[in-house]
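Lab notebook, bench 4. The sequencing result for the construct came back, and we need a structural model before the next group meeting so we can plan mutations. Quick request posted to the team channel:

Model the 3D structure of this chain.
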Amino acid sequence: MLVVKLGGSNGLDFAAPCRDIAALVREGKEVVVVHGGSREVDRISAALGRPPRYVTTPSGFRSRYTDRETLEIFAMVVAGRINKLLVEHLQALGVNALGLSGLDGRLLVGKCKGVIIALENGRKRVLRGDYGGTVEGVNASLLRWLLEGGYTPVIAPVAMSTAGEALNVDGDRAAAAVAAALGAEALVLLTDVPGLLRDPADPSTLIPRIPAAEARGCLERYAKGRMKKKLHAAISALEGGVARVIIADGRVEAPVSRALEGRGTVIGGRARELPGKGEG
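Done. Here's the predicted structure in token form:
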């Protein structure tokens, strides 16, 4: 069982990952796909006269402020356009893909934030009416039923709140929750960099392996920007029982297979030490 998260950031094309996923499915591998779509949401939001609004929390995380109108745009783009185009792409490759959002069958259930504490100009500001959330439950039986029926689930990160409202949830954290709920052997987080880098501007500083016990230290020491969320998702997946998480480059050919071979940053698994531990 393998869970693959396809990023939605700049520089990541879904074509190569889809070809690779199709090859793995033909080999008999069970794959669950979770995807993002932030770049496309930003583009369409701007075109509709609702430019995206991002905020940074006091802990350093950058996230989308999601009021109700933004949520509806997010759902339209991610659970609609992107999800169905991914299903189309995989079906054309011979994969019996089935598109879902976390709303369907209460696949992903979470708690609504409601309020965000943001840092603006060095001062804390309270933003209310946010429809972002965190996944707290996964309908694993639904996913297992689909997999047993020969389907490849393709999941958009729109969840159901405990109050019955739609939520925008982070795709990496959603993928981690799905992987943990299914007891996946691996979670692959594809992105637009080679993996976790000591220096974000220098691809040659890739950290190839991180023992699970050292992941939080790397979060504080090396993870910047969007990579903080990915490493947090990796830690969550490992704590949920996933054997290993690989953060890998999704821009190359056969990116999932390469990740499973150890190309990228492997967290957990058989890692014993962090190369260059004393550097930086």
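The longest strand covers residues 123-138.
Will bring this to the meeting.
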